[in-house]
Amino acid sequence: MNRSEFIIATAAVLFVAFLLGWFASWLIHRVTRVTQSEMGELDRMAQELHDAEETRDQAITYLQQREAELSNQLTQTEAELQAAMEGLRDARREAEELRSEVDRLGGEA
Fold it and tell me: What is residue 1's DSSP assignment?
């Protein structure tokens, strides 16, 4: 095989390799091509995901506000309970003092 035959054979092999590569690329592009309807579906799913994330964020904000309100109510209720318990203690102590006074005055008579 002389030099010209070698060059022609090499060129033919490279050309065939180029054609096979181009065909494989075209075939992969055809198989994996995203159609317009698929793009519409992807856009719709992206919008639904965005809406779901907004709804989640709103729910989290609402729950945080509600938790703060309930914590505030609990604190107020505990303070009221503490005040009521102190008032009851004072009333019992006063009632006991009055009983003692009545018993003391009843014993003197």
Answer: -
